[in-house]
Amino acid sequence: MLRRVAPIVLTLVVVVVGIFALAAGPRTPPPRPSADFVVLVGVAGLRWDDVDPQRTPTLWQMARGGSIGSLSVRSAYRPTCPLDGWLTLGAGSFAGWTGGQRDGTCPPTEVRVDKPDRIGANLPEQESVVVHNQDRLPWGTVPGALSESVRCSVAVGPGAAVAAARPFGRVDRYEPTLPADPAGLLGSCVLSIVDLGTVAGTDPAERAAAARDADAQLARVLAARPPNSLVIVAGVADTEQPSRLHVAVADGPGWDNGWLTSPTTGRRGYLQLIDLAPTALTALGRPMPDRAFLGRPAESVGGRPDDLAAAIAEPADADREAAAQREVAGGFFILLAGVQVALAVAVLPLLRRARRHAGPYGPKPVSRRVVAVVELLLVAAALAMPAALLAEAVPWWRNTYPALTFAGLTAALLAAATLLVRLAPGYRSTLGPLGAVAGLTMLAVGLDVVTGARLQLNGVIGYSALEGGRYAGLGTVGLGVFIAAALLTAGWLAQRVRREWRPTVMVLIGGAAVVVVGSPYLGADSIGAIALTAGVSVAAAISTGGWLTMTRLAWAGMAGLAVMIGFAVVDLGRPPGERGSLGRFLAALGDGTGGLTVQRSSASSFQTLVNSPLTVLALVGALLVWFALLQPWGGLRRLFGIYPAIRAAMAGTGVAVGIGGVLGAVALDVAGAAAAVVVPMAALSALRVLDHAADRTRPATDRPQDAGPSDAGPADADRSGAAPAGGAGASHEPRRDRGRVVRSSAEVATG
């Protein structure tokens, strides 16, 4: 009775832990109005390396007293061209100008601004732009939502007119250029948007001249700013491919000497272009529009260095790191996929000949040296992800040749980690390499997440601030690697204890992993926590024996669903600005806009599926497992029969990454990242267990029949049909009993 009830109780524990981890979010007080006027100043293309005391003294002084940050200018298109950026600024959501981009470049597009009177202006193309964003783009963006939320707005320059135009095309007050004395104009409405031109090109002299001109105009704006006003300067767009991080400075009451951040980034010193519209409305004390912005109000937080030069150096360095990451990441994953495919092909003949025959006849076994080399290569392949993560601790992107520097640094770390596994005390045992690799990987990813995920931001196996998808917590690749490492570690530890304690070990390790993944203070991945809850439930249910049946899979799915429902109830009870992705999606379903989210998720999944090298890793790993390792000669069935906790860990990993990929709209990326760790270790363990398949050992008699052996020996006798026997690291000397050879109990169990 207790054995039947225990998995249910432990699963409920995982569900409670998952809901607690997701619900324990930070409670922030509602923002208060801080200004009577807001002036949004845009300079397309302005980056932090364009700012210094000589070229841009006004902006430098403004940054000294205000708050600064790196601005991600993601819009509906890549790259974000100036008109796309201005339109996104005024919409508070991802928007794009009609016509889009051609070949990834920004075409020279002029916006038509009619001025029928001396006060305002009209944009004749605004109606088609609104239709384009509402019907053809998947975000349901409303251009002009910012200006519609205030009674009156001012626009200076054509870019500002695009941002300030109401949905029907009217600009309340408009001037094509900044007046000599703009005080009257800026004080006529609570919201002013000013276009100070563009800083473009790669020539340093041209960029310096454009930045100097924009700074001179900014000095006139600051001199004429209304009293009790908030002034925000932003590099609102890219001017060429590839995308970069841009300038963001806020100066006004409550924005003194700090870092800019927002709930959409959750990272100090980072905010998005879509955050500027809700920031302006919040500062003015105005309500948000009926169709909520995708952006969230920015805020100022402390921790900035007192030295302004050192403070500005941080976002400038982040821009260089993000640019280098984009250049290196693609090559790294392609190389990793190629190496893992080559290893999968190389392992096939070894698996065929790995089982040593006890008699004098049979095929000649593969050389021990060859097998040892292949095993080390499998260990290195499984450790490639954590090695690349740790390489981010060294600023390789500052080198003249960043790709070569990253490659050399990763290779050195990979060699050191592989040597550490090779010298580990239990390396020669069947599960020794698996336990060491899983433990090191979980430690590397887990420590990074616990300490703020600094190595993942703009990291090669992390996420880029330029993409605008994630800025803090656990990324897609990190999630797959961490799920695999945590469950394999739990399985390795569970295999070392008595059978009745294995589900408890699985729940303890898995529950801690759920907290790390789902906590808003740590991994901040609610979808990953839900998926991992289902995986842990599966692993706990079959860790004592048995296979993954439909009943157990349904039970695990119910556990994940329980966590999702519990978190949804908590999330929907929060204010709209504090809700997570699940709460926002359910709210969108309630107001009839959920179809847009589904459409975005479907499009994102398809693009990821066809473009990501991790798809190759997932598919090749699945093919190797199904057509080789799970065959009678492949060794994985024997491994699963002898070590049921390892089988449970791998089954739980499959369930978790499958759910995570579907719910997270990342196709096979999570599965591919997990396969990069699991498949090499599964192949290595299969080689080890096949190598000992014909061993003759004396059955153990000095411990209970159901006692759990260490990883040096096979599993105990349980309902899966496995029995205690000598595995790798045990005595393999045959014994005679009345003239016959006694087979090992593991061989009896597995046939």
Q: Which runs of at least 5 residues are low in confidence (pLDDT < 50)?
A: 592-596, 697-751
Number of helices: 25
Radius of gyration: 30 Å
Mean pLDDT comes to 82
End-to-end separation in angstroms reads 31 Å
The best one-word shape is elongated
Considering DSSP H and I runs of 4 or more, what fraction of the residues is helical?
Answer: 40-55%
Structural class: alpha/beta
Question: What is the makeup of the main sheet?
Answer: 10 strands, mixed
What fraction strand?
5-15%
Strand count: 14
Structure description:
The chain has 751 residues and is an alpha/beta fold. It is 51% helix and 8% strand. The strands form 3 sheets. Strands 1, 2, 4, 6, 7, 8, 9, 10, 11 and 12 form a 10-stranded mixed sheet that branches. A two-stranded antiparallel ribbon has the order 3-5. A two-stranded antiparallel ribbon has the order 13-14. Strand 13 and strand 14 form a beta hairpin. Helix 16 runs antiparallel to helix 17. The radius of gyration is 30 Å and the shape is elongated. Residues 695-751 are annotated as: Disordered. Residues 706-723 have a biased composition (Low complexity). It comes from Micromonospora gifhornensis.
Short description:
This protein has 751 residues and is an alpha/beta fold. It has 25 helices and 14 strands.
Helix-strand layout with pairing:
Blueprint: H1 2-23, E1 37-44, H2 57-65, E2 67-72, H3 82-91, E3 121-122, H4 126-136, H5 145-148, E4 153-156, H6 158-164, E5 170-171, E6 173-175, H7 183-186, E7 191-198, H8 204-223, E8 229-234, E9 246-251, E10 258-261, E11 270-272, H9 276-284, E12 299-301, H10 308-353, H11 368-382, H12 384-390, H13 402-422, H14 432-450, H15 476-494, H16 502-518, H17 526-542, H18 550-572, H19 581-590, H20 594-611, H21 613-629, H22 636-642, H23 644-663, H24 669-691, E13 736-737, E14 740-741, H25 745-750
Parallel strand pairs: 1-7, 1-8, 2-10, 2-11, 4-6, 4-7
Antiparallel strand pairs: 2-9, 3-5, 8-9, 10-12, 13-14
Helix pairs in contact: 1-16, 1-17, 1-18, 3-6, 10-11, 10-13, 10-21, 10-24, 11-24, 12-13, 12-14, 14-15, 14-24, 15-16, 15-17, 15-23, 15-24, 16-17, 17-18, 17-23, 18-19, 21-24, 22-23, 23-24
